[in-house]
Amino acid sequence: MKKSEIRFSIALDDQKVPEAISWSATDAGPDIHFAKAINVAIWDRNQDGTMKIDLWTKDMPVDAMKYFVVDNIGAMAETIMTATNDVVMATKMRDLCRVLTDHIDEENKKQK
């Protein structure tokens, strides 16, 4: 059996707010990669529920964070389609992504 590891490293300031996020993975080569935000969801088979880790650095722009959330919803739409072939659920999630992207774009126009 092949094993693969993903490692996250979080640098915190003295108030325990993330300043830097880096990650590496055995299947991603030897390089260390950097991120401004991570969202990890794990289905806990013992609790029969989702465990989540959401972290973002203090220099993550608000509009980028909103797009990050929309991108996650879009990725979940692809996951639900691949895993269950539930066209209705995937379509509703994609529709929500379009609505939210329009909302963010509109907010950005007002701020400029």
From TrEMBL:
Q: Which domain of life is it from?
A: Bacteria
Q: What is this protein called?
A: Gliding motility-associated protein GldC
Can you name the source organism? Answer: Hymenobacter psychrotolerans DSM 18569
